[in-house]
Amino acid sequence: MKIIASVPAKAILFGEHFVVYGKRALATALNLRLSVEVSGRAGEGYHLIVEDIPLFGLDMELTSEYAQPFINYDEAARAIAYIRSAVQYMEREYGIDGGVELRVKSEIPLSAGLGSSAATTVATIAALKRYFGLWNGDLDELRRDAHKIEKAVQGNASPTDTAISTYGGYVLIEGGGVKRLRDLPEIELVTGTICTIPVGAGHESELRLKTRELVERVKTRKEAFSSVFEHIASAADELTGEAVVALRRHDLTRLGSLMNINHGLLDSIGVVPRRLSELVKLAQESGALGAKVTGAGALPDGTGTVIALPAAGHSDELRIAMGLTGAIVRDLRTNAMGLVVEEE
Ligand code: MEV
Questions:
Q1: Which residue in 36, 59, 76, 148 is deepest, having the highest Cβ count within 10 Å?
Q2: Ligand 1 centroid from CA 322, angstroms
Q3: Is the distance from CB of 282 to CB of 322 less than 8 angstroms?
Q4: Rounded CA gap, 296 and 38, in Å?
């Protein structure tokens, strides 16, 4: 028996980071997918094969220290942290006992702000639940399980990413709760991902989880400037509320302006390094209705993604302009389908 669970990429449209402090955030699923296949194996334990993820492929026993051929251990280690935690969680909470092969395939770049961690977590536990006869179709339970795992790896984590990986569509995080918004239209977004490929294979990097580090940096800034931070966070919350209204009315000009403002707030909390900042400016000056960093942002030497809202009929020019910076540029659509679990 082979079980295949697939989930979409996510883009936070408004409210990242501030959502960790109880403010509203709006996120959507993009039409890039990650899948986890679970099938039986002769031996005990877990055999993991990660392939097709932009930047690396590897093959390893999940319990062992050593990964067989890898291209980029840094990125691989981050993916494994979530898979290993998901497997340990399933052993502890649901009593599964191995004897499986897990094969991960992905179109979602890792550590880029497009939800690869949540996608890996949700797809891994969905596939394991179904394989071990534990799947009852309860998406809310699955999302909560995935969120616990994400929190264990990431430290402070909002439910945004795991909600989008699970449900797809659009979600609004409000007062810490998750609301699925089914009345928002699909729109086109151009994404630009800046990738810095680290040189070397330092195993210590397993601990250097990007989102965790950025969330901690923001916390430090919040503590140092608590009253100023509160104003910025309240403004971000307002932007999210206004964005839902603009999107519902399909007022893309207003939505774009709100994105530009949100980007300024992200810059003010220190999660926008030079290359992402340049990419946003370039998109804004190349006819985008709006552009912003999405997700956690990036460390100065790291990977991150910008989303830009093209004016109707102008996405080609925008894509070409953003590509000139060396970013990996994609023309994507929002409101993509959530988790799909199939048996082969
Ligand atoms: C990461 O994709 C989004 C953050 O807001 C963290 C979180 O919500 O858990 C930075």
A1: 36
A2: 24
A3: yes
A4: 30
- In angstroms, the CA 165 to CA 144 distance is 12
Q: How far is the CA of 206 from the centre of ligand 1 (A)?
A: 19
* Beta-carbon-side half-sphere exposure of residue 244 (alpha carbons within 13 Å): 20
* pLDDT for the residue 267: 98
Which of 19-23, 67-71, 155-159, 314-318 is the least confident region? 67-71
- Using pLDDT thresholds of 50, 70 and 90, give the confidence band for residue 208: very low
CA 203 to chain centre: 23
Nearest-angstrom CA–CA distance, 236 and 221: 16
Q: Which of 109, 145, 110, 149 is nearest to 129 (CA)?
A: 145
What is the amino acid identity at position 51? E
CA distances from 272 to 15, 20, 261, 281 (A): 15, 18, 14, 12
Which two three-digit tokens encode residue 140? Answer: 């809310």
pLDDT value, residue 75: 61
Q: How far is the CA of 209 from the centre of ligand 1 (A)?
A: 13
Q: Does the annotation mark 52 as catalytic?
A: no
The answer to whether 154 touches 86, Cβ cutoff 8 Å, is no
Classify the phi-psi angles of 7: left when phi > 0, otherwise alpha if psi is within -120 to 50, otherwise beta: beta
Q: For residue 118, which of 159, 89, 88 has the smallest C-alpha distance? A: 159
Cβ < 6 A, ligand 1 pocket: 12, 16-17, 19-20, 157-158, 160-161, 211, 215, 295-296
Residues 145/330, Cβ–Cβ less than 8 Å: no
